[in-house]
From TrEMBL:
Keywords: Membrane, Transmembrane, Transmembrane helix. Residues 21-75 form the YrhK domain. Pfam families: YrhK. The lineage of its organism: Bacteria, Pseudomonadati, Pseudomonadota, Alphaproteobacteria, Hyphomicrobiales. This is YrhK domain-containing protein. It comes from the Bacteria. It comes from Rhodobium orientis. The chain crosses the membrane at residues 21-46, 52-70.
Length: 93
């Protein structure tokens, strides 16, 4: 199994379920990051709200960091489900 191969998502019903759950999480994180950046941008119009705006950007950045982390976690979960026979065969080549 190769990491980040789009064919991994349809290897089995379990793979499809994992893919769907991670895509939902990825979309939610993406949406939250965008909302935080939008709110942070609007808050900068008022000097008195500068600190909350900065915190919105910090948390939005953390959500943007979570996006590739979710994808990597999904791929590692696929890998842990393993197709060990195939892996062993590739190592013997």
């Amino acid at each position: 199994m190769t990491l980040f191969d789009s064919r991994n998502r349809s290897k089995s019903p379990r793979h499809e379920r994992i893919y769907a759950l991670y895509e939902i999480a990825h979309t939610c994180v993406d949406f939250l990051a965008a909302v935080l950046f939008l709110v942070g941008s609007v808050l900068f119009f008022w000097k008195s709200l500068e600190n909350p705006a900065i915190w919105c950007f910090v948390f939005g950045s953390l959500f943007f960091l979570a996006k590739p982390s979710l994808r990597l976690a999904r791929e590692l979960q696929y890998l842990s489900m393993g197709d060990y026979d195939d892996l062993a065969e590739r190592l013997n080549r």
